[in-house]
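User:
Care to share a sequence and structure tokens?

Assistant:
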Amino acid sequence: MSEVLLSREGHVATITLNRPDRLNAISGPMLADLSRMLVESDADRDVRVVVLTGAGRGFCSGLDLQDVAAGTGIGSGGGGGGGGFRLDDSPPFVLRRLDTPVLCALNGPAAGYGMDLALGCDMIVAADSATFVPPIRRGVIPESGGTWLLPRLVGWHKACEITFLGRKLDAGDMQRLGLVNLVVPQAELEQTVAGWAKELADQAPLAVRAAKRTMRLGLDTGFDANAHHVMSELTGLFRSKDFAEAVTAFMEKRDPDYQGR
């Protein structure tokens, strides 16, 4: 069975890390498959939301250290990186480029690479069993976006505390620090994520993608540059059929039926 699964229901694509016997530890082939599925989902205009989750009781325990010890895993020099797989094609880079919103269903522990992968999503709904574990105690650093993301999410001092000390963060810590949007009982995670995904999918997809682009670019540009980009996006949205539908639906006092055009 594939180590990464892709399924579709309506406008929602779900990508599942599928090595539950290893707490979904990342292998080299998984990197390529995950990136490919993210790109395919983003290119499919019928997909309005991507849900990323893990099979079994964990989200992702990080790079597979058993493979590393055997000389075949990522970082071992044994070719476990997926055969010529380039850094800018890796999942954290791909996540950064996606216009489709990505909702993480954090179903359990996320360590090292898994923590970075979750933080790279746009929103996180976490089970109360979820934890974050930085990788410093394994002699490495957050190599997949964590050192860029954490200072922006929690500020410099807290990012240093989290990264340098490597303490496990439980779901309560994650919510208190603003690293997740919501924590729910494990038994309610699937239903809650499905509700959030439907609510996202019901929004005007062109506007959601444009909002994500402008916010993403705003992290790296000044106010003036971002304002001009927003106006460019807005001009296109005003000409869309979805905007016309939104106006008509408002006047007719009904819910809009967006088509992504």
Notes: The mean pLDDT is 90. The longest helix spans residues 28-43.
